Amino acid sequence: MFQQPATVGQQYWPPGQITTTSFAAGGRYPQPNPVIDPRVPAANLSNSTGGVGCEPGYNYFFPAEHTKIHVFRTGATPPWQLPPNFTIPFHALHVPTNTTIAELLKGFGANNPSSKKNVIFECHQGGNGRWYRGMVISGDQKDRLTTPIKDLGWDATRTGLRGGKPVVYLYVTKD
């Protein structure tokens, strides 16, 4: 009996070359290369084979609770020093609420050997297009590094939905 090869876009995959798992009963098709942003190393899963993403045949078991975090990308100028209504580029992420401050610093690329230069600034909207500096945590605050972010109020309630709490806005530096 002849079996028709599976198609993905304009590519053809002969039978037996698509990995099937119980979670993806229809087969697992080859995926494009991941987009890797060295400024946010935690945005990609590094696997045991040295690659990125889950190994073929594996799925990821997500933590039960996440918060939404927007990390501002304003370079050396903090958001609260920018002119009102400045368009600020950012990286939006879902972050597990059991993530510690140390893991957050590392995951956002704040890896300066001088730990006091690795700093997370919480930012708050001030209205009229302005931002204000909130809580500040640096890598040399050893007592704070093991704190889970949910203990800072950065929990699943930070959805940004109307009538709810805003997402968490951060500015991270390592200089």
UniProtKB/TrEMBL annotation:
<protein>
    <submittedName>
        <fullName>Uncharacterized protein</fullName>
    </submittedName>
</protein>
